[in-house]
Amino acid sequence: MIKRIAQAWGFAAILLLPGYVDLTSTLGDERMRVPWPLTRLVLAQLVDLAIVGLIFLGLLAILRGLKAWARIRWFAAAFLPIYLLVCNLRIFPFRVPYAGVAVVAAAWIALLALLIFRAPRIASKLYGLGGAVLTGAVVFAFVMTAQLVSAAFWRPGIQEFASAIPAQPAAKPRLVWIIFDELAYKPVFEARDNSLDLPNFDRLHLQSTIYTNMTPIGYHTNLVVPSLLLGRIVTSSTFSAKNQLVVRTADDPHRELFDSAASLFGMAMQRGISTSIVGWYLAYCPTFVGTATECYWSNDDTEDGAPPSANASFADDVWFPLRIAAEQLVAPRVAVADVAHWESLSHVATVKDMSQHALAALANSQADIIYLHMPVPHPPAFWDRHSHDYGVGGSYLDSLDYSDRFLGQILDILEAQPRWPKTTLIIQGDHSWRTRIWRTTPGWSAEDERISHGGEWDPRPLLLIHAAGQTNAAIVASPTSLMFVHDFVAAQIQAAAR
Predict the structure, then answer these.
(1) Domain limits, the chain
(2) Which end of the chain is more exposed for a tag (fewer CB within 10 A), N or C?
(3) What is the rounded CA–CA span in Å between residue 270 and residue 497?
(4) Could you report the average pLDDT of every consecutive run of 10 residues in the chain (498 residues)?
C-alpha cells in the first residue's frame, strides 16, 4: 500500500509540476519577486497534489480489481507517459509542436506493441521498470513538497517607502529615466507595421536623439537592469528567500550581494540627489531601502501557470490547475488558450497598477531623478488597440499601441511642469522583443507570427534620449552598447551635484 501511495504522490507531483515549479526554489525565484506572502498559493498547490494523488490511487484500485487488468495495464503504460509529457510542455525551454508530440506518442505505442507481441518478457521488465520509476518519483515529490512548505513561510520585503522631499525650484535639473520592458527599436521606428500608429513616439523623436544600432547587454530583465544600475555586466542574479538580490558579474566569478550603495541610486544619494522609483518585476524596494528616497514596486503577473493569488480566490487557485490538467487530457488546445487567458488577465492587473503609480510619481514627486520600470510592451497581451481598452488575445502591436498612449500621458505631465525645460528624459527598452521566447508560449498570436516573420529576432532595444531643452532630432547610427545608459545617467548625476 505504501508503494502505491508513493506512486500516486509521485504521479501528482509530475502532472502538476507546471503549476508550482516556480515556488520550489530553495534560494528564491521569480515567484518571490512579489510583495505579498505565498501561503495561500502554496496551500492551493498542496490541495491539488492531494486531490490528484487520491484520484490516481482510487482509479488504479478500481482498475486492478477488474478481470481485464492484465490488458488495461498496458493501455495505462502507453497512455500515462504521453499524458505527463503533454501536461509539462509549458515548462520546456523550447517549443514542442503537437505534431512532435504525436510522433513521440506513435513511436512509443508502436515500440510497446512490438515488445508485447514479439518480446513479452522484455515488455514485462519494461512495465516493472516504469512502476519503479513512478515509485522513485516520490523522492522528487517529497523534495518538492518540502520546498513548497518552505515557500509558505517566506515573507516578502517592503513594498513601498517614502521620505519627504521639499519642493524644488524650476531651474534645478531633473532626470526622468523610463524603461519600457521589451521595447524593441525595429517595430517602433525601422519597420513599423502599416496598421500601427505611434504618434507619441514620433512626437518625442522630433526632439530627441535616437540610437539606431544598440547592442544589448543581456537577454533577461533580471540581468540587464542590475547591470545598468551597477555599471557592471551581471551574468547571474537571484532574489533570495531572505529578500536579497544576489548577483555574479562578468568581472568576478563569485556570487555577491548586490551593492545598492555602488549603484546609480547610491551615487545619487551620496551627492544629495533625491530619487523616486516605481518598478516592476524586480524587488526594487527591498533592494534599495535606505538608498532611494521614494519607492514602490509590485508584480501581479503569474509565473506558475495559476491565477495570481492577489487577484483570485482560494477556490480559483485550487481549481485552475486541475481544470488545465483535465483539459490537456481531452482538449489540449483549449488548455493552451485558457493558460494564455489567465496569464493575460494577471498582466492586465500589473499594467493597471504600475501605470497608475508611475503617472502619480511623475505628477507629484519632487525627486530629482524619477526612475520607472514599466511592464509594457512586455507580453503577455493585455491591450486591444481597436477598442482602446484592456483585453486578452492581442499581439505585440497592441502592446506597442498602449505603450505609445502611456508615453503620451507621460509627456503631457512632464511638459506641463515648470521643470520640463531642465528635464532630461530617457526612454529605453531593457532588451528587444524576444520572439524566440514568446513564440513557444500559449499567448503567441497569429499577428505576432506575421509581424515577426515567423519568429525572427532583432536584438536591438530602443533608446531615445531627450536632453534638457532639446528641440531637434538627432541620430546615432554607430554601434552602441546599452551600458552607455549607465554612463550617461552617471554623468547626469555628477553634473547635477556640482
Answers:
(1) 2-152, 160-496
(2) C
(3) 10
(4) 77 85 64 82 91 90 83 81 82 74 85 80 74 71 86 90 93 97 98 97 98 96 96 92 90 92 97 96 95 95 60 84 87 86 90 97 97 97 95 95 98 97 98 93 92 96 97 97 98 85
